[in-house]
Amino acid sequence: MHWDVIEVKPEPGYCLFVRFKDGVAGRLQLRPEEMTGALAPLRDEQFFGQVFIDFGAVAWPGEIDLAPDAMYAQIAGQRDGLLHVG
After folding, report:
1. Mean pLDDT for the stretch of residues 29-54
2. What predicted TM-score, i.e. pTM, was given to this entire model?
3. Which has more pLDDT, 60 or 29?
4. Could you tell me the strand order of the sheet in which 57-60 lies?
């Protein structure tokens, strides 16, 4: 799908740079106070840095992932180059 992630890089402050298969790219800002439930392990910056791509989705060990279609829609429509997730 065009929203398959082909590149992801962790950045300081719980930020991710994400590039999709069709070239759309942007940054996602995750807020620690909103990392609850299944996302709680992401509050550990060392763990957050273990991000990888799993079948086109942004993922972390332990089957934690973010929906690529929702990320794509928000990044493609963002104006300031930074998307807040939470």
Report:
1. 94
2. 0.84
3. 60
4. 52-54, 57-60, 64-66
